[in-house]
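Okay, is this right?
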Amino acid sequence: MHVLRTEHIVDMFVWVDDSLPKQLPNPAGGRPAKLTTSETVTILLFCSLTAPQKLLKNVWRWAQTNHSDDFNLPAYSKFVEHCHKALPALCWLLEQTLDNGTELCFMDSTMLPVCKLIRADRHRVARAVAAFGKNWQGWHYGFKLHAACNASGQLSAIYFTPANENDGQQIPHLVNDQTVVAVGDGGYTAQVMRRKMWREHGCFILSPPHPTQKKQLLANWQLTLLHARPKIEAVFDYLKEHLLLVTSFPRSVNGYAVHYMRTLLAYQLLRVG
């Protein structure tokens, strides 16, 4: 992908505005908003691509500093309202960028803590939807992102759950009738779900044999695909370390959703760019 410069925000706006379905004017009339949905999405995406931020306030400050001549920016509180109203547009654009027609996908899950574990009992923002979950790194409190990607690292499916949900039970959200082989880790070995996916989608779920399994036979192509499975882990690493997917700063569940959607969409644009 080419290096993004300040003037490329215009190209970003054109793509967003052309991609989003056109909205009908408000029949009730009234004063037009300072920011349109396309402008709000453009600010969120371009900031995520050029100067990733965990706080919407920092996104607003970044826009004020670098693009005050390009947008008629409102006060911070109104900017937050515009971001929340733009959530359906972010979800729609992300859905359009998913490679849901891939025949081979690599699937896994990753924890998205909403706060430090020691503060979990005092956390209030996402209490109704967050949960405690455990993986090889230990206990977490928050959500879990289940995702699948193609051989190029482009996301093909995503699904959010509380952190205590089982990985294997989320396979139906990660595969479809186009999927021929889905490669996962040891959390995707349940025979009942594997047979169900084969019956409903004709999809073969490939995972490593259990260590206690006496017969551990693999074809060469299966071994090759299992060795390529860390590709999805590399996706998670980029999302967390470079695009700052994990955050504890939003003050509402919608705030978390806006942060996750803009980060995932920014990643998709990097992959297809």
About this structure: The beta strands are 104-113, 131-135, 138-149, 155-162, 181-183, 204-206. The chain has two domains: 6-85, 100-248. Residues 100-248 form a domain with the Nucleotidyltransferase; domain 5 fold (CATH 3.30.420).
